[in-house]
Amino acid sequence: MSTHSDYLQQAIDLAAENVESGQGGPYGALIVKEGKIIAASGNQVTGRLDPTAHAEVMAIRMACQTLNDYQLTGCTLYTSCEPCPMCLGAIYWARLDKVYYACSREDAAAAGFDDSFIYDEIPLPPAARRIAMLNLKQGNDLKPFELWNAKPDKILY
Ligand SMILES: Nc1nc2[nH]cnc2c(=O)[nH]1
Q: What region holds the CMP/dCMP-type deaminase domain (predicted)?
């Protein structure tokens, strides 16, 4: 029976292997459900030319395919490093039960992966962010939400 520490060690090993493979950054993640590893991935940002291909996001995508579901309730994520703000959002949307991580955001920053500029942006008003988010109201901007609310067979997530 593997322990939390065993799974976390596997995530760290994946991260270290990822440096050799050249697929992306020094990160690894895996997802466990009922004692079984259902997904595992390294960071694949540069290999896939995909800035969203962080280890945690890749593992979440893989686990959803494995379970044929869009939510991961009952699953635990093990990651070599504290999730970045993007992965944090993905973790909540995926409804994972719990996350274990090894390195901290401070460790990542010391290695050149500093997320603090993103954390600092979050509380700012959208238009004041470094990448300005400009709210342009349109006459029919609420239409998609109205259609959604009226749709009897919608799949809630
Ligand atoms: N936790 C985590 N942080 C990152 N920062 C840049 N890439 C990654 C990643 O794949 N995982």
A: 2-132
- The answer to whether residue 134 is domain-embedded is yes
Q: Write out pLDDT tens, residues 75-103.
A: 999 999 999 999 999 999 999 999 999 99
**Ligand 1 center to residue 57 CA distance, Å?**
9
Per the annotation, the verdict on 56 as an active-site residue is yes
Dihedral of the alpha carbons of 25, 23, 16, 101, in degrees to the nearest 10 = 50
Q: Residue 47 falls within a domain, yes or no?
A: yes
- Tell whether 105 is covered by a domain: yes
User: What pLDDT digit, counting tens, does each position of 25-68 carry?
Assistant: 999 999 999 999 999 999 999 999 999 999 999 999 999 999 99
The residue to mutate among 77, 113, 116, 119, having the most atoms of ligand 1 within 8 angstroms of its beta carbon, is 113
What is this structure's pTM?
A: 0.97
Could you tell me if the CB of 56 is within 6 A of ligand 1?
yes
